[in-house]
Amino acid sequence: MSLSRQNKRIGKRALIGATAILILLIGVDLMSGGAIRALVRGSTAPISNAGSRMTGGGFLATRGTLQAENEMLRDEVAKLTLHATWLESLERENEELRALVGLSEDLSGVAARVTSSYRASPYGTFHINAGSDAGIAPGHLVLAGEAGRAFLLGHVSEVNASSALVVQIFAPGASIEALAGKTPLTLEGQGGGNGRGEISRALEIEEGEVVEAPSLRGLPIGIVGKIEEDAASATKEVYVGLPVNLSSLRFVHVVPR
Amino acid sequence: MRILLGLGAVCSAFVAPPIVTFLLMLVLSLRYAAWEVLFIGFLVDCLWFPQSAGFLGFMPVFTLAAIILVWGIEPLRKEFLTQ
Asked: Based on CB atoms within 10 Å of each CB, which residue in A38, A184, A254, B79 is the most buried?
């Protein structure tokens, strides 16, 4: 038997073995109510956290920035510049935390840090560093913004002792009943904090109007960004977006439903 | 090369857009009898797939995609592409 043929046979056996192990893992995960997933998430949380800090925090945001920083670090001026940047970052973090403090006075809940990337999830989910130990339970609502101007980001789907998985309101494929002023509409998630809905042409709606979710404590979920109207169509398309930049968001507020 | 592609796919599961992970899984499946693709797909779903999936109408897309890639591409790879 030739070596190539033998290799092919070994490769196929490996595939069959791996598929059998995968099916076994899925079976155990289903029967145990997500124990495998919880184990994977728990053990990979530090990697996920480090990854999100590197790519989302701005420090290693672009290769150009990194190269420029490397050059500047060679002399004293660069050290001072870096120091100033660091102070600025602390100041920004301080402002975000102050806004959360204001928010927690309005709504009782828990502040949590986002520990994963927003863009890596194919399901519009992200991780936070607070879990059942902090009193968080599935169904709790996740908010971002300042007191009086907080927007609903999503809801807690799964909870571990010290972390939780959050599903965004506008996760791809999700739909939600909403109210823009007095106009009811059903929004479909498009991912990235954006939703799209259709309403009758006869109904009044304006760009910039705040959209609320009556089923979720009446909290605002976005702002009408664009309205597309076609004279030949009986409906108009409404695009709703979060006024929060998801990629720069580091803290969220979790409140009971 | 296979190890690099595999490591790239694992890293991208944590930080990169899903399309990057998928493309790496596709390249691995086209080039090798890559059993690791199955576990990379499962890892993505373990990390990001929500339990309330039924409510949102999701499916564990990456695990299913991995099975389809590995077993669907196998005859094509065996016939036309190098081992």
From this structure: A254
